[in-house]
Design brief:
Its main location: membrane. It catalyses: ATP + protein L-histidine = ADP + protein N-phospho-L-histidine. Keywords: Coiled coil, Kinase, Phosphoprotein, Transferase, Two-component regulatory system. It contains nine helices and twelve strands. The protein is rod-shaped. With 453 residues, the protein is α+β, with helices and mostly antiparallel strands. Helices cover 52% and strands 19% of the residues. The mean pLDDT is 83. Among the domains are: 139 residues, Heat Shock Protein 90 (2-Layer Sandwich); 150 residues, Histidine kinase-like ATPase, C-terminal domain (Heat Shock Protein 90, 2-Layer Sandwich).
Length: 453
């Protein structure tokens, strides 16, 4: 008999006649049961043995059969059956007549053991089966030796019982599969209905979205047209108003000129009132013109490297005269050196002058301070005051055109300075933000890139 050198087989037997096929099947099932294979695996390896035995009996007239238990490379034990043909196999290899045989076992191959060609098959032993120690294997051999092979009729009876049980299991699985198929079909119908419903709702939503976008596009076009019309109106009105206002100022200056006829005290007071009102009106006209230019995009920055020190010095000199309240101090700090950034000097001066002027108007006591600092690649310019402060909900509203903060501290103005300042700062590539609390003053922060927009 073939086998590993020095290792006794659990059982060995001969295959010579048809009846031996039934005996091999029975004994194979018994060996599988003894070593601990589960019931279904016992039937599988027994069926594979009978099929291979039938092929070898027909092809070469028989084989010698031996059963072993081996330790595999996967760390698990395997029940191995070797069938050594009594004559050379055609082509030196065995190919099962039924392709299903190889699916009944873990391995099925043709090997050469000690110069003898062997058809070898194996099945893994469950991990919870008793460990096949040499003592245990000896017990297996003794137990198998005490049992006698049954007759072919008995084996056929057992095989038929197994077949009937398998058929019953197949019928049960078929019935379960039919139930599952019906449930799946019902689920599919529900999913399809839901899909159709969702598709209809999605299409309806898409139609609504398309209509909404069309309406938004129309509204946007109307808003753009309205904005352009407003800008043209402001520009035209401002130009039309500037000439008569300038004429009024000129006439008022002539009336008070020393070369003109002298005026009474009341006449001089009224002329001064006319000149003051005309100057305020001219300031409003200029603000309207600046805002119209900013909104229409007609302002083109004159980019240059600007030193903040002379800019701050000019602001310090020109605005000192506006700090007429004795309890308010204007402080313009010297910026740290080097204080150069790429911007438009005129536009930047307008923005800072506007912010300082606002602070001086609304601050009754304390100070209005301008300072600058460098932070990474940006210049941070802040104008802070000790005025009444602004409610948080009004922080964005004060950047709306013609809006002024209500209250007892309200002073004259157009409400156009801050909207214009923010537009100019944006044009210069920066931001203008407000930090303020009631009773704690206000801080306007201009952030500009060092290298320009």
């Amino acid at each position: 008999m073939t086998g590993e050198p020095g290792v006794l087989p659990l059982l060995q037997m001969a295959l010579r006649i048809e009846q031996d096929i039934f005996v091999i099947r029975q004994r194979g099932r018994e060996v599988a049961s003894v070593v601990g294979l589960e019931h279904q695996d016992q039937i599988r390896i027994a069926t594979a043995l009978s099929e291979v035995a039938r092929d070898l009996l027909r092809m070469v007239g028989g084989a010698d059969v031996a059963f072993h238990v081996d330790a595999g490379a996967d760390g698990r034990f395997h029940l191995r059956a070797d069938l050594a043909p009594v004559a050379p196999l055609p082509g030196g290899r065995y190919e099962p007549q039924s392709g299903a045989v190889s699916r009944l076992v873990d391995t099925l191959s043709t090997s050469t053991v000690e110069g003898v060609t062997v058809v070898r098959m194996s099945r893994r032993v469950p991990a919870n089966a008793p460990t096949p120690t040499p003592e245990r294997l000896a017990e297996f051999r003794t137990e198998l030796g005490r049992t006698a092979p049954a007759s072919a009729l008995d084996e056929l009876t057992v095989q038929n019982g197994q077949l009937i049980a398998a058929l019953d299991e197949v019928r049960s699985q078929r019935d379960e599969l039919a139930v599952l198929n019906e449930e799946l079909a019902e689920t599919n119908r529900g999913v399809l209905a839901l899909y159709n419903q969702l598709t209809e709702e999605l299409e309806e939503t898409n139609r609504g979205v398309v209509a909404l976008y069309a309406e938004l596009d129309e509204k946007s076009a109307q808003l753009r047209a309205a904005s352009e019309s407003k800008s043209r109106f402001l520009a035209n009105v401002s130009h039309e108003l500037r000439a008569p206002v300038t004429a009024i100022i000129g006439l008022g200056r002539l009336l008070t000129d020393s070369a003109s006829d002298p005026l009474t005290a009341e006449q001089a007071r009224q002329v001064d009132l006319i000149r003051s009102s005309a100057a305020d009106l001219l300031g409003l006209v200029n603000d309207l013109l600046d805002l119209a230019k900013a909104e229409s995009g007609r302002i083109e920055p004159d980019w240059a490297d600007v030193d903040l020190r002379p800019v701050f010095g000019q602001l310090r000199g020109t605005l000192r005269a506006l700090a007429t309240r004795p309890d308010v101090e204007l402080v313009v700090e010297e910026p740290p050196t080097p204080a150069v950034l790429r911007t438009d000097e005129v536009l930047l001066g307008q923005v800072l002058r506007n912010l300082l002027h606002n602070g001086l108007k609304f601050t009754e006591r304390g100070e209005v301070r301008l300072r600058a600092r460098r932070h990474d690649d940006r210049w941070i310019l802040t104008v802070s005051d000790t005025g009444p402060g602004i409610e948080p909900e009004l922080h964005e509203r004060i950047f709306e055109e013609f809006y002024q903060v209500p209250g007892a501290t309200r002073v004259g103005g157009t409400g156009l300075g801050l909207p214009y300042a923010r537009r100019v700062v944006t044009l210069l590539g920066g931001t203008l933000e407000l930090t303020s609390e009631p009773g704690r003053g206000s801080t306007f922060t201009v952030s500009l890139p060092v290298g320009g927009a």
